[in-house]
Amino acid sequence: MVQLSRGALALAASILPQFVNGAGLNTAAVAKGQLYFGTATDNPELTDTSYVTQLSNTDDFGQLTPGNSQKWDTIEPSQNTFSYTKGDAIANLAEANGQKLRCHNLVWHSQLPSWVSSGTWTNATLLAAMKNHITNVVTHYKGRCYAWDVVNEALNEDGSYRESIWYTTIGPAYIPIAFATAAAADPDVKLYYNDYNIEYSGSKATGAQNIVKLIQSYGAKIDGVGLQAHFIVGSTPSQSAQASTMAGYTNLGVEVAITELDIRMTLPSTDALLAQQKTDYSNTVAACLATKGCVGVTIWDWTDKYSWVPNTFSGQGAACPWDENYAKKPAYTGILTALGGTAIATTTTTTRSSTSSTSTTTSGSTATGVAQHWAQCGGSGWTGATTCVSGYTCTYFNDYYSQCL
Ligand SMILES: O[C@@H]1[C@@H](O)[C@H](O[C@@H]2CO[C@@H](O[C@@H]3CO[C@@H](O)[C@H](O)[C@H]3O)[C@H](O)[C@H]2O)OC[C@H]1O
């Protein structure tokens, strides 16, 4: 039998965590010093026992995010009436599994009940309603969330403020006030600004940096920036571009996290698209790993069966690391190897095309945003006003999303 010296054992111990044999995504991420690898989930899926078994597998998932059940329209559907049943179901599951909870979200322009979005407000009355909501919700979940996405998607593509009801009624101060209110209700929870298209440099990323500075200038607490990372296969920013953008935030003294990662494709999927998706997932996870202050990665559900993508982006899908039959795709191996884990056999099953929603297109002329990524057509909801850079068309998906394609 070979005897290892104490020095050799110490060397082996220092090397071993770099390469995690047989580990899942969360185990590998934690071995690399991250806090978690996690996934979003939603209440309707929790009746599927096979789904819940994998969702609860802490080798792969050390963190859950409720995809819908903590949004304003679910929690406060009428003024001052709070309903926590759905949010609690996911919080309880995470707790029972020993998984962290990212709480999502407090102030957003979308998924608002009509009493908010169509109410008649003054600065004072809307501020009071916003503070009441934040205080109630954050107090209810006090001590249970790792982080709250306090303000979601406050920016237009050019880095200016989105003309949401919050901005048009209260002005930019709604942002620091929201953060200060959340901090008062739970001083220990991490408070995040969360947005999309802030994963690569440009006006919108600069806008997100300015939001961090704005909150700090008010003397309010902000702990992190959430990079949603709803990407497209083959158009995902490079690892170095993502890492350098993340550093732009961490240099301001906040942490970052990838909060809603999925990488969609035009269906049907092919072996070539799945191979590119593997590379894109790998680069994104590697960027987080390479960034001091990037605490973890959350995918926006783990299986194509329950992904939001086909319902939102007509003709697109196959965005998750597991397919509709819960088989691991090449993307899974891409993530795992980026995290230092051992490659495993995966499926390359292609995904049927989706016809779940209709899309209409409109062309524009004055450009904002990055062509291959999302653009907001008309800001808060569709107005048909937006425009894309030459060669791209503004495509309407639904009242929440539109994109230059
Ligand atoms: O009919 C609605 C349905 O459209 C809604 O879909 C959800 C929309 O939000 C999705 O999450 C967001 C995706 O990207 C970022 O913009 C946000 O930060 C996320 O919150 C969610 O996954 C979809 O299920 O769900 C409710 C239905 O009534």
Automatic annotation (TrEMBL):
It comes from the Eukaryota. Residues 1-22 form the signal peptide. Pathway: Glycan degradation; xylan degradation. Keywords: Carbohydrate metabolism, Glycosidase, Hydrolase, Polysaccharide degradation, Secreted, Signal, Xylan degradation. GO terms for biological process: xylan catabolic process. The keyword Acetylation does not apply. InterPro entries: CBD, CBD_sf, GH, GH10, GH10_AS, GH10_dom. GO terms for molecular function: cellulose binding; endo-1,4-beta-xylanase activity. Its EC number is 3.2.1.8. The keyword Secreted applies. Residues 369-405 form the CBM1 domain. GO terms for cellular component: extracellular region. The active site is at E260 (nucleophile). Belongs to the glycosyl hydrolase 10 (cellulase F) family. This is Beta-xylanase.
